[in-house]
Write a structure and sequence with these properties.
Length: 298
């Protein structure tokens, strides 16, 4: 479906339909793959907030870990796709910028933002106080944690002592959720949770599907998508919980945060934001107001 917004200085970005299993092994440096398009108007007020160096370069360099479908992953040609990629493309179009995606392992994205290799990190980052000590976050979505289990196996995320739980390394689930739950187990004299860590979400999902783990923990859109792809083997283990904001990682105290906030809010106001989330079936986590550093400012 092609949606055109009647705004001046139109820039075209690609909005991609949800697809199935893909090969995430091939690196790519830029852009988007084929699909339907949405035309997005440049927001001059947002453009005026851009730092001069980025405005002159005309490109937003984005660190991304494209192994986290449906948020960000790769199509069969190795191009990054996903609802966050569509969101990033539309946001850049609002700012009159092109996008250049730099695939990376998740744990290297924030250091690359602070080191100046990437302008931003857009890769399902949960905004929390610890991360805010290093970068600022422009908040654009609310996601919960959700577990999956093998079909027919009864797993309770609130009572997982002694179980093996698969998770992607460096995610909130690996660094915060599971260690805290495991500590509660041992404090009560029970067996700890065996945290089975993988470099990519694909590997964590496969481990559960193959029976190497009792459960898997990931952000709610990720777990729901995984179940939709291998629903003959795994199912949801209860509802999502512990909702928290997603944020775009930006260097501390950079004017770029204000520009991104203005561009995203413009997308919320004109309906572009809703259209993208609706296309991917993830509107349940939508926000009405784009904020900065929600973890510490709320």
């Amino acid at each position: 479906m092609k949606i055109t917004y009647a705004l001046p200085a139109l820039a075209v970005v690609t909005v991609l339909a949800l697809s199935g299993c893909v090969d995430n092994s091939t690196d790519t440096d830029t852009g988007t793959a084929g699909g339907s398009t949405v035309e997005v108007g440049v927001d001059e007020a947002a453009v005026a907030l851009l730092p001069d160096d980025i405005k002159e370069a005309g490109v937003l360099v984005i660190g991304i870990d494209p192994t986290y479908a449906p948020n960000e992953y790769k199509d069969d040609a190795g191009n990054p796709i996903g609802w966050e990629v569509d969101l990033g493309n539309a946001m850049a179009a609002k700012l009159g910028l092109d996008t250049q995606y730099q695939p990376s392992s998740f744990d290297k994205i924030i250091p690359s933002v602070t080191g100046g290799s990437y302008d931003i990190g857009l890769s399902s980052f949960t905004d929390n106080e610890e991360r805010e000590k290093v970068v600022d976050f422009v908040n654009y979505y609310e996601a919960g944690i959700q577990w999956a289990q093998l079909i027919g196996v009864d797993v309770d995320p609130a009572d997982a002592c002694g179980l093996t739980v698969a998770v992607q390394t460096a995610t909130y689930e690996e660094t915060d959720e599971l260690p805290a739950k495991s500590q509660e187990c041992t404090d009560a004299g029970n067996e700890p949770i065996n945290i089975l860590k993988f470099d990519t979400q694909d590997e964590a999902t496969n481990a559960l599907a193959l029976g190497r783990a009792d459960a898997m923990s990931a952000d709610s859109p990720i777990t729901q998508y995984a179940v939709s792809q291998v629903g003959d083997k795994i199912e949801l283990a209860g509802d999502s919980f512990d909702t928290a904001p997603y944020g775009i990682a930006v260097e501390k105290d950079s004017a770029l945060s204000d520009a991104l906030q203005a561009a995203l809010q413009s997308m919320v106001d004109d309906g572009t934001y809703k259209s993208i989330l609706d296309d991917w079936g993830v509107f349940s986590g939508a926000v009405s107001s784009i904020t900065i550093n929600a973890a510490t400012s709320s």
